[in-house]
Amino acid sequence: MGRERLTLGLLLRLGILLTAVCLCIHVYLETGRWGAPAPLALGHPIQPIQNLGQQSRTKRVPAEGGEQDRSIKRRISYVRTMKKDSPSKKRDVDREVSSPPCCPPFRLHRKTPRWHIDLEPWASESHSLEEEAKRFLTYITTPQVLCSSLAGKEAAQEGPKRSWAVCLDPQYSLTHRIQSKHCRIYSFGLGVDDRSLELFLARSGCEVHCFDPSLKQPHLQQGEMWLHRLSVDWRDPNPAIVAQRQYANTKKLATILNDFGHRQVDVLKADMESAEWKILENLILEGVLDSVGQLLLELHLHWAGFEVGGDDPSVVRYWFSLLKELEYANFRLFHVHSDPAKPHLFLHKNILNASSAYTLSWVNTQWKP
Prior knowledge:
The protein is of the alpha/beta class. 41% of the residues lie in helices and 14% in strands. Helix 12 links the parallel strand 7 (265-270) and strand 8.
C-alpha cells in the first residue's frame, strides 16, 4: 500500500514537471515569433508616451516582412546615432522620431481641476475702495478689440434698445457660421421683453434657444426660436429636490449643454440679475468657456451679488479678477454699454459717477468651432 502511494506521488510530480516544461517552451516560441528582437530592447532610449503607443499598436498588428526589416533598420540606425551624436543632436533626433512627418504630434490635453479663482493683486497698498473701483471701471469701459457689431444695424431696427451686440468681424467665426447656417445661440434671462438680437440671429439662420424659468410650458417653439423653462446657475439642484418635482428650473451650463447634446455655443447671452458673478466663476473653474464663441453679460454693480462676500474693496477686487480670467481665456472686450436711465450706484455709493449696470460683450479670439 505504501509503495503504491509513493508511485502515485512520483507520477503526479513528474506530470506537473512535464506540464511546466511544455508551457515554458510554448511561451518561448510565441515570444520569439511575435515579440521584438531581444538585442533591440536592450539599451533602447526612453521614448515619449505617443511612441510607446505606436509601438504597442505595431506589435498587435504584424506587418509584412519587408516593412519589419525597414523598421528594424531604422531603430538600429537610431540607436547608433544616439551613441555617436552630440547631446544637441540627440534632442533633434528625438524630436524627429517622436513626431513622424505623416501625423501631427500627439498632445495630452488634461484639464487640471480648479477650486477657486486666483485673485489679482490689490490696486494699491491702501486697499481702498476708490482705487479698486477706479481700476475696475477703467477696465470695463475700455474695449480691447474693434469689431463690426450689430449695434445700429438690423438688430437696432427691431427694438428700441441697442445695448446687446455681437461681433461680426470677418476675422472671427460668427459671420462664417451664420453664412453656413451652423451657428447656435443661448440666451438666458428672466421675463425678457426685448429679444431683438435673438430674433435677428434666428432669421439669419442660427439655432436660437431662449431660457426663461418664468415660462408656463417646459418647451415651446415661438416662430424661429426655441423657448425653454430653464435657467443657468452656478450649481446643479439637489437631487432630492429634483426627485420631488417634474423638472428643475436651474442647472449649470455644462449640464444644460450635456442634456441638449450640444458641444459648442457661438453666442452666450445672459442677464442673470446679480447672479452673473457666481455663474461666471463656475464657467471659469469648469472650463466651459472653451465651448463659447462670444459672451454677452449684463453686470449689476449696485451690490455685491448673490453669495459674494467680503468688504467692498475685496468685492471689487474679486469682480476684477473674474474679468481678468476672461482675458486669460482669450476673450477680448469689444462692446460696452451703460443705460443712462439706471441709477448711479456702485456698491450702494456714488463712486466716480458709475452706473449700476453695464452690458459688456467679449469675443473669444482663439475659438475655432
